[in-house]
Amino acid sequence: MLTLKVFMRRFFHILSFSCFIASLCLPRAALADETERLYQTYGNAVYQVEVIDMTSQKKNVLGSGFQITPGGLIATNYHVIAEALQHPSRDRVIYVSNKGAMGALTIVDVDVVHDLALVQMQKPGREWLKLGSSALPKGTDLYSIGNPHDLGFTIVPGTFNGLSHDSFIDNIHFSGALNPGMSGGPAIGHDGAVAGINVATAGNGIGFLVPVEPLKALLAHYRTLPPHYDFVAHADAHLQTQLLASQNHNIGELLANKHWGSVPFGPVRVPGHIDTALKCWGGMDSKERDPFNAYFSICSTQDRLFLDEGFDTGAVLYRYDYFTPKKRLNLVRFYNFYQGQFGTPEADYQNAKQGDVTDFSCNGHFIWHAGYRWKADFCIRQYKKYPQIFDMHLYMAMVGAGKKGFIVTLMAQGVSKENAIAFARRFIHEIKPNPPHAEQKPPHATDSHAGSRP
């Protein structure tokens, strides 16, 4: 017989279990309600941004954007509208609202370094988003809005995980499912204020946002331009100015570091991990059946600045290759192999098309440095649209060292000629004898010295 005491005990057990289940379900339901609320409240300020090929009248680039002023100014990514900026005679830009309304857009300002652009609507929308701050506590909820894969407008919940400090430019690490087509869309907080702009995804729920502060700076710069300013007609000069400022900051930061962490590698000591903006790795680069041993170390920046389709810049890379023969490889065969490792700049540089840059111009010398004789080539090529910007390539191969070979490769994209020379000189200077103080005198007084212009 079910007594009152037993009934009450079972009732409270059931009630407690029901409350536990509710505690699991409520947050998800609340999240869905909040996501819906944000989209209903702020989604009308978000647009699809399309670049239209004027020959076929079909879209060839798709992204997102959002209105940031009552006058119809839309923010998006530079890489979304780059085709139209670089080729205005063949491409135009339009917007599509979440209701299907369409209209023309005019490019009025860009920040190529932070991958941002401002475009102007002919007929402003009724709603716009306010610009907030990216100074948020780690774990703050953010909601990204965009049009992934042209499937329709989507809002994606995610988490602010702070700034990623492994680059010359800090982006927000966003835990959320960003997808192609969402580039240029906003990431907003519960108050609807923009904290960042969708820019890239690494897959598996790892995304990156441009912090809102560079967008505020771009908006302030736009407001200094004359009324009815034709930005597209003057875009090359603006982009060159931005690229020069960026490389001055980046190369200047590297040169200002007095301690490049000299490390032993084979017959010499070389610069190690010179800045946190570069990632380093290394190991053996030969197989058991090869008649030689090959070891390598490479450090490189991970990010690139997108300029145009097939044209990017901003990379810094240095690599060391150390070769020794196995017992069955005689000196003549080793040198035949070693000569085949000598590279050319064209083989290493795939960041630009022929129409974007000049051919490399190289200056080669034999130099005596760190106790060894080297064949050193210093090469640069110029950007055609941005004549104060160059790609630099330094290549040094140890020669006359018997059965050992060592090659140094240094690359810097999108730098001024002055910074290219300064960076190459500093890098050569940082190559030391191994062990320290073991440097030999040059065998011939006619050899050049490391202090010569590369």
Account of the protein in words:
- The protein has 454 residues and is α+β, with helices and mostly antiparallel strands.
- It has two domains: 31-229, Thrombin, subunit H (Beta Barrel); 241-449, no CATH class.
- Helix content is 24%, strand content 37%.
- It has helices at 4-42, 78-86, 212-222, 235-256, 331-339, 345-348, 417-429; strands at 46-53, 58-67, 73-76, 91-96, 102-111, 116-121, 141-146, 154-164, 171-175, 186-188, 194-203, 206-211, 263-265, 268-270, 278-284, 292-301, 305-308, 311-313, 316-325, 361-369, 372-382, 390-399, 405-415, 432-433, 448-449.
- It has an eight-stranded mixed sheet. Strands 1-2-3-6-5-4 form a six-stranded antiparallel barrel.
- It is elongated.
- The model is unreliable at 1-26 and 444-454 (pLDDT under 50).
Q: Brief overview, please?
A:
The chain is an alpha+beta fold and 454 residues long. It is built from 7 helices and 25 strands.
Major β-sheet profile: 8 strands, mixed
Taken as a percent bin, the fraction of beta residues is 35-45%
| Count of individual helical segments | 7
Unreliably modeled segments: 1-26, 444-454
Shape, please? Answer: elongated
**Mean pLDDT value:** 88
Radius of gyration (CA) equals 28 Å
**Overall tally of domains:** 2
Q: Order of strands across the widest beta sheet?
A: 15-16-19-23-22-21-20-25
